[in-house]
Amino acid sequence: MNVKETGIADCLLIEPRVFGDDRGFFMESWNQRSFAAAGLDLEFVQDNHSMSSAGVLRGLHYQKPNPQGKLVRVTHGAVYDVVVDLRRSSPTFGKSAGFELSGQNRSMLWVPPGLAHGFLTLEDATHFLYKCTAFYDPANEHSLLWDDPELGIEWPLGDMEPVLSEKDRAGRPLANAETFA
Ligand SMILES: Cc1cn([C@H]2C[C@H](O)[C@@H](COP(=O)(O)OP(=O)(O)O[C@H]3O[C@@H](C)C(=O)[C@@H](O)[C@H]3O)O2)c(=O)[nH]c1=O
């Protein structure tokens, strides 16, 4: 697999090795040993799977305390995946970055603990899968406002209004959000 820096400290883009043949393809979506060799020595406790129609925006989510590291990917459809660094001690605090993840490119993103994470679906029936290093903890879940001007995220929405949950409509801007040391 190929591991690339993203411009956000500790956040990595992973391109798995895909073996195609006349039956289809095969890839390892998680291998503890190969990831450890690439510097990602991880223990996961939860796997999640969501499906969304086109134009759904989920996020930007994080937990504090009990932040989750997430290894995210798309198996069908496509998303614009976004992270925001909320670690005050990080050289990239307050910065965001966006990546296209799709069933076609099969790229994965490692989102370290301390980042807010969200995505906009670009196609119908987009299946989003992720592994988490900490359990879901709804009492400590936070939503960072997806369109906070301070973040300046360029969501590829055109004139479209995204479909949001009530919780995400009420997200907090960075200036009032919980952050990490
Ligand atoms: C995230 C999650 C949700 N749920 C339940 C709670 C709720 O009734 C229903 C839908 O939850 P949500 O609206 O929070 O789902 P969703 O908006 O898809 O939340 C996810 O968004 C992306 C961007 C992330 O990064 C994830 O960590 C997670 O926060 O599923 C669980 O039981 N376990 C979980 O781990």
Automatic annotation (TrEMBL):
<comment type="similarity">
    <text>Belongs to the dTDP-4-dehydrorhamnose 3,5-epimerase family.</text>
</comment>
<comment type="function">
    <text>Catalyzes the epimerization of the C3' and C5'positions of dTDP-6-deoxy-D-xylo-4-hexulose, forming dTDP-6-deoxy-L-lyxo-4-hexulose.</text>
</comment>
<comment type="subunit">
    <text>Homodimer.</text>
</comment>
<protein>
    <recommendedName>
        <fullName>dTDP-4-dehydrorhamnose 3,5-epimerase</fullName>
        <ecNumber>5.1.3.13</ecNumber>
    </recommendedName>
</protein>
<dbReference type="InterPro" id="IPR011051">
    <property type="entry name" value="RmlC_Cupin_sf"/>
</dbReference>
<dbReference type="Pfam" id="PF00908">
    <property type="entry name" value="dTDP_sugar_isom"/>
</dbReference>
<dbReference type="InterPro" id="IPR000888">
    <property type="entry name" value="RmlC-like"/>
</dbReference>
<keyword id="KW-0413">Isomerase</keyword>
<dbReference type="GO" id="GO:0008830">
    <property type="term" value="F:dTDP-4-dehydrorhamnose 3,5-epimerase activity"/>
</dbReference>
<comment type="pathway">
    <text>Carbohydrate biosynthesis; dTDP-L-rhamnose biosynthesis.</text>
</comment>
<dbReference type="InterPro" id="IPR014710">
    <property type="entry name" value="RmlC-like_jellyroll"/>
</dbReference>
